[in-house]
Amino acid sequence: MSEYGMIIDYKYCTGCHTCEVACRKEKDIPLDEWGIKLFEVGPDELKGKWYWNFIPLPSDYCDLCHDRIKAGKKASCEFHCLANCIEIVRIEELSAKMIEYGNSVTCFIP
Amino acid sequence: MIRDRKDRGKNAWKQVTWEEALDLIEEKVNYIKENYGAEACFTIQGTGREVILYAPAYASAVLGTPIFTTALSGDSCYGPRCAVGDYQFGAGYPELDYAAFFPDRYDNPQYEVPKYILIWGKNPIYSSGDGFFGHAIIDLMKRGSKLIVVDPRVIWLATRADYHLQLRPSTDAAVALGLLNVVISEDLYDHDFVENWCFGFKDLAKRAAEYPPERVEEISWVPKETLIAAARAFATNAPSSVAWGLALDMQANGIQAGYAIMSLAAICGYIDVPGGITLTMPASFMGKWRYDTFGFLPDELKGKYIDDPSYGAHNAGSPQGHQSHPDLIVEMLETEKPWKLRMLWILGANFLSAQGAMPRRFYEAYSKLDFVVTQDVFMNPTAMALADVMLPLTMVGEHEGIALPHFGRNTHLLGAINKAVDEGDCKSDVEIMILAGKRLNPDLWPWDTPAEFFTSQIQTKYDWTFEDLQNDVIYQQEYVYKKYEKGLMRPDGKLGFNTPTGKVELKSTIYPGWGEDALPYFEEPLYGPNSSPMVMEEFPLILTTGGRNITFFHSEHRQIPSMREINPWPKVTIHPKTAAKYGIQNGDWVCIENPMGSFIQKAKVAKEVDPRVVHAEHGWWFPEQDAEVPNLFGAFKSNPNLCVPQKKIGKLGYGAPYKGIVCKIYKVDGLDG
Amino acid sequence: MSKTPLPTSWKEGDYTVTRTTAWSAPGCHAGCGIVCYVKDGKLEKVEGDHAHPFNQGHICPRCAALPDVVNSPDRLLYPMKRDPSKRGDPDAWEQITWDEALDLIYNEFTRITNEYGAYTLQSFCGTGRDILWQSQRLAYAMGTPHVVSYFSGLACWMPRLVSYNACTGDYMMPDCSECHEDRFDNPTYQLPEVIFNWGCNPVSSSSDGFFGDWIVQCVKRGSKLVVIDPRLTWMAARADLWLQPRPAVDSAIAMAMLKVIIDEDLYDHDWTDRWTYGFEALVERCNEYDLDHLCEVAWVPKEKVIEAARIFAAGKHTCVQLGLSFDMQRHGIGGVRAVIAMLAICNDIDQPGGQIFTAPPYDFSYFSWGFKELPEEIQKQLVGYDEYPFIRMGMVLDQPDLQLVQAEKEEPYAYRGAIMFGTNPMCCMSNADLSRVYPVIQKLEFIAICDWRMTPSIQTFGDVALPVAMNVEKLGMIAKRTGACAMSPIEGLEIKGEPKSDAEIALLLGSRFNKDMWPWANTEEVYDELVKKSGMKWRDIREANWLYPGLEYRRYETGKLRKDGQPGFNTRTGRLELYSVFAESIGDNPLPYYDEPFYGPYTTPELYKEYPVITMTGTRNIYYFHSEHRDIGKLREIQPDPLAEINDVWGKEQGFRDGDWLWIENHIGRMKHRAKLTPIIRYGMANVNSGWWFPEMDPKEDPMYGCWDVNPNLIIEPGHQGPTGFGSDVKAVLTKIYKCEEGEY
Questions:
Q1: What rounded mean pLDDT belongs to chain B?
Q2: Of B260, B287, C184, C416, which residue is most buried, by most CB within 10 angstroms?
């Protein structure tokens, strides 16, 4: 079981793809594969309001940048995320942290 | 690389040494200057590269010509907004206060988070335009800022906004006047600021009264309820602020719109206050060795820049100095009047793919030049089509340089570009400028290295050197709020603003001198349901262009696999209802056509646009395709500028309809029709 | 046997709530427990029944949308008739009373009987609805043996059923704890170490009474999963091993694995010696095959086949969920037998977590109920009676491929009239080449069709339409091999119009034709009769809500598998027959075997050159049951169009793009679908849907509601059924694919 988990505060994910490219560089992933992939839902009008979300989903390549974390750095996607909407925390802190983030939050455990 | 003039458009480049290339440039330029005068030479600059800081110097101090220009019709980028800043506030570019001046950013005790941010004609998340760091909006949202978005598209920020004013493209002035109408008629403005620091409020109020929400709804499609609610939210939640964008530059009526928007911010009391709109005096830092180099020209040449006296805002000591007018330069090339232009130095511009409206006309006109030099990091359609000499540039990280957000007009930091890699045989724009300057105009170029040059420029204002900047990486200048109360907005040290009246000019004392209305007004775009109903019978959709992909900078990055993979093809966004009407499915190739021309992009069927509007991406060419003329990397296949007219610009010389034209659409089999 | 704890019905706020089972109409192969909420006489919502052991509260989107189906404005509410000369005219229908309708049917069939003989009448039955014994016993009461589906090779379930029966004496299924009330907590239960999911996608189909999620539950708890499927299914993507064979040669893979298990000596010698019959013959049969050749023709690397065989044998208990694909190949029976042999010699039969014998909790032998009451000369008119002795077993349906030729040639006689239950042959089932089936049906003099809404079949050739009651509106019963329950109209529901259950229609008509065969006053009495041997009544079962059959393991040791109480299996030899004596006795191949499909790269290489795309069909979408649910907006929205899955790389090479309309053509016809480019199938292959029609179309323009062109049954050639009369290469059609021209879509 991973020591860490990734929180994605997707209400702020702007769909910039930086995580994809940063991950590709960090893990040297060829173009026909992917380390983290952005999914897009919307825009659609729900309950008279616009709904448009991007959510990055890590693949089996993802080890939450284990080596970087062990070296005291942030994971590549987390570090470069323009919207600062990815955070990697110790797994036992996941739920408390997610509560802090409030709504529209999801998490990933490798 | 050099190429014989008769081989333009062919992949017939010959590699030469720097010495050989510079020898050739020296010989050709001197020949032209001797036989036809320096005014037969000129430069064209693009945007977003360091070289725009040096392009005027390349003209005035290297070539010795008064003519430097861009390829963008109506100089429809930044200049129009700067003009509003200049003439209305007597200051540099008015920018949203996102605590950029403070090293401790949002934690600075002086700083306040704006309650509402009015994001107008801008998608900063993807564009980070003009030196504004786009994702600062996210920082502010997380800290409580709410959004009002004015955009014809449902941009992502619009889905997070309290109010989205989804207007018909290029009706911004009407919407701005409508907001003023509500704020003034409901008495929601800052009386104290208006009385003490604004000029012409009563006249503005009278003008705004002509734009009740009902009328604005008719013009702009923005429901009056939304308009009224947004106006109230903006005016009654101090401090609030504005992040205004390129869309205002890219319409003939744009200066009027910007004028009205800034008037709105002013009467609400949001100018130069924490969490409001920041203003600085223009031309700090490197501003010196830019437009000032114009002064080195002999007097008989100073009047020979190309502009129309009626383009008052553009030529009367405009924010862009004595920049020659791009639309007039095209005509000059075509007519060879008042004289024939012969030599061009292209600086960071691929104007056949971006910038140039009616790019085929550009191709024809610019092909007439005797001698064309360009410098770039990749081969591109413009270089392939037109250049005789192509100089290879180093990238960021491969040379020494400086970065200057907002080009000196609201500059919160000066950054050092430090060299990380040594890139053999390429040179930076600054290195080339010094080398060429030493050959062509040695008196003005005493420096041997870029570092010496930078230090001398820095020391026109500060006592430290470029090496100091390299060590610190950035230098931030101090920011003081409410400078108009402290005598810091005017060179003479008096209180108030650096305008003829010393106040924020809600009614302009300058514009009437150029034959323009003193007050903002709305004028219908060239094409539209109210201005050209006949045209719209055949071309029933409104075409707006140029929304950014974060993976590309204008025409760059198409050859970078990790970027191209994310956005492999140019996309035209069509509402599902409209797509269904024309039998178009997501992913279909679609031809977009109007009387100017046509281009082809791939359909993205999405509700991001109104059913009456389509949006096309700009800057597309295909590095993987045949490089030579006529294909020219497919430069004329997907370029929306093929549908944008030349010289249909605003009264003051600024603003062309890049973002508000008309078109019809139909399905085609592929990129080649 | 035991009961579930909840009451049948209760009040919850404004709602009257009833627990029941979602069967049928609409159609389904499962027997999920649902809880129905009625307000003001209207079914408002449906939830899963968490106390129901079959689905444990989970439901698929079709039951979630059940209120929309029941309350559909398109329901048939009253009987209708139309003059047979006006078939296809949607304006020619006339509402009539039930008495008029039943009289009309009775009079027409009686006229035909008098003029041509009762055996010229047909009773069509579909699948997935509560219509099997109903359509059969009614046929027998009418005096005809013909229970009909023009379904080439009866390629659904029957091949697997008869194979299991021939070797083990009963039907078998994987043990995912579904037969225990306390499921995984049952002390006798053990988790399968390995599950083979072979030729089916149960998470979408839940077919043959097997709820797909049961496998997922086991995998969650640690079972290893091996998937054998020409398509990368969701399960395949999560499997420990995935084999991607060429369609319709699963028997080659099965033979290859069996061969590896024997050659590498991976089997249980002791169990094989004690409990199986014919091992030496089996070894000999395996020796006839070359492993390299089997793998080569199956298009699966040998290493993967060997790995699969080793995983199979290594599992302490391994079980196999065998799918429809085995039925939909001409020689699938040979493959099913090979799988049974593997299960047997690896000691997985009747073991916890292995392959288990299950039976409904009461004796409920509703197949061909009353067939034996027909005079023998009528029985013998069952199509295939002489040619295919297997046909007389199990469901006792006419052999469709032979029947089609009979009907076309009118030899020995023409068919004259039909009644149809739970079938929409314009869209489904008629895979013995729809372009041949259609005229054969159309020339019938009189056709009555029972359904819950207007269908392309009723609109195209129905003369009488009888409105059928939905699952929540009727009295009925369902007997699954994992349990059973009964249903009655849910509390508080105001039924619109006059729909009747298929059972009631059969009873009303049957008692008109033959009072002796249908002596009962109502359907409850019919069901009482059906469960009589168990000493129960229908009401007992309704009140029980769910009856578990209970499950004991290793019953071959305790004598509980045989009627005579002796240890062993319910076969002639008493052993598990690797060599089926029964099959031999009726002239069928007694051993597992592999053979090629009728058309294929190896059998018809010339045809393959012209039609190089192997096209599969019939993959299930969970949001549709065969041709149903296309009119339910919530479901249709998920997939609005018939889709042809095309390998993405190949498709791009062909210039296809998502959404393009494509023609899929073979040597007998063509049909069209919209392209969906996807990597889930092999390069150069395609997979098309089935059952499509467009309820939104105006029947005045097309009484078939657009079903014709999109129907893969236009490219399936009948007459190539397997040697037993069962099995047909439905899922491996040689085709070529090209874009539709403008105006063709």
A1: 95
A2: B260
Position B329 in a domain: yes
The CATH architecture one would assign to domain C605-739 is Beta Barrel (2.40)
Point out the least confidently predicted range of C5-14, C62-71, C231-240.
Answer: C5-14
- Contact of B587 with chain C, judged by CB distance below 8 Å, is answered with yes
Whether B331 and B463 share a structural domain: yes
**Chains A and C touch, using 3 or more CB pairs below 8 Å:** no
The CATH number assigned to the domain holding B646 equals 2.40.40.20
Q: Which token pair is B116?
A: 């509402």
Q: Are residues B454 and B558 in the same domain?
A: no
CATH code of domain A4-108: 3.30.70.20
Q: Which tens digits make up the pLDDT trace of C116-137? A: 999 999 999 999 999 999 999 9
- State the best of B569, B585, B604, B667 to mutate against chain C, taking most chain C CBs within 10 Å: B585
CA distance C583 to C722: 14
Q: Any idea where the domains of chain C sit in the sequence?
A: 81-155+377-472+501-524, 172-357+565-585, 605-739
Going by pLDDT thresholds of 50, 70 and 90, the confidence category of residue C106 is: very high
B551: distance to nearest CA of chain A, Å?
A: 8
Tell me, yes or no, whether B381 and B418 share the same domain.
yes
Q: Which residues of C touch B588 (CB under 8 A)?
A: 657
Based on the fold, state whether residues B394 and B462 are members of the same structural domain. Answer: yes
Question: Tokens at residue C398, please?
Answer: 């006419």
B450 assigned to some structural domain: yes
Dihedral angle over CA of C561, C565, C571, C576, nearest 10: 60
The mean pLDDT of C636-660, rounded to a whole number, is 95
For residue C658, the chain B residue with the least C-alpha distance is B587
Mutate to test the interface with B, among A9, A10, A14, A36 (most CBs of B within 10 A): A14
Nearest to B622 by CA among B279, B428, B389, B379: B379
Which sign, positive or negative, has the C-alpha torsion B319, B321, B322, B328? negative
Please write the tens of the pLDDT for every residue from C552-571: 999 999 999 999 999 999 99
- The answer to whether residues B328 and B192 belong to one domain is no
Listed in sequence order, the residues at least 6 apart from C658 whose beta carbon sits closer than 8 Å to its beta carbon are B585, B586, B587, C675, C676, C677
**If you classify domain C81-155+377-472+501-524 with CATH, what class do you get?**
alpha beta
Pair B386, B436 in one domain: yes
Q: What is the pLDDT of residues C536-557, one digit of tens each?
A: 899 998 888 788 888 999 999 9
Q: Which residues span the domain enclosing B208?
A: 95-278+482-514
Report, as an integer, the average pLDDT of A48-72: 94
A89 near B CB under 8 A = no
User: Which residues, 6+ apart, have CB-to-CB distance to C520 below 8 Å?
Assistant: C507, C511, C526, C529
Q: Where are the domains of chain A?
A: 4-108
Beta strands in C339-436 (DSSP E): 355-357, 417-421
**In this complex, does chain A touch chain B, defined as having at least 3 beta-carbon pairs under 8 Å apart?**
yes
Q: What is the pLDDT of residue C742?
A: 82
Instruction: Pick C360 or C715 by higher pLDDT.
Output: C715
Taking CB atoms and an 8 Å cutoff, what residues of chain B touch C657?
Answer: 587-588
- Mean pLDDT for all residues in chain C: 94
- Calculate how close chain B gets to A9, using CA atoms only, in Å: 11
Chains B and C touch each other (3 or more Cβ pairs < 8 A): yes
Subunit contact A82:B154, Cβ cutoff 8 A: no
Same domain, residue pair B38 and B127: no
Interface size, chain A vs chain B, as Cβ–Cβ contacts under 8 Å: 58
CA gap C514, C138 in Å, rounded: 9
Domain count along chain B: 3
Instruction: Tally Cβ neighbours within 10 Å of residue B508.
Output: 23
Q: How confident is the model at residue A1 (pLDDT cuts 50, 70, 90)?
A: confident
Residue B522, domain member (yes or no): no
CA–CA dist B285, B287 (Å, integer): 5
Residue in A closest to B123 by C-alpha: A14
Tell me the pLDDT tens digit for each residue of B491-512: 999 999 999 999 999 999 999 9
The SS3 call for residue B213 is helix
User: In this predicted structure, what is the pLDDT of residue C2?
Assistant: 43
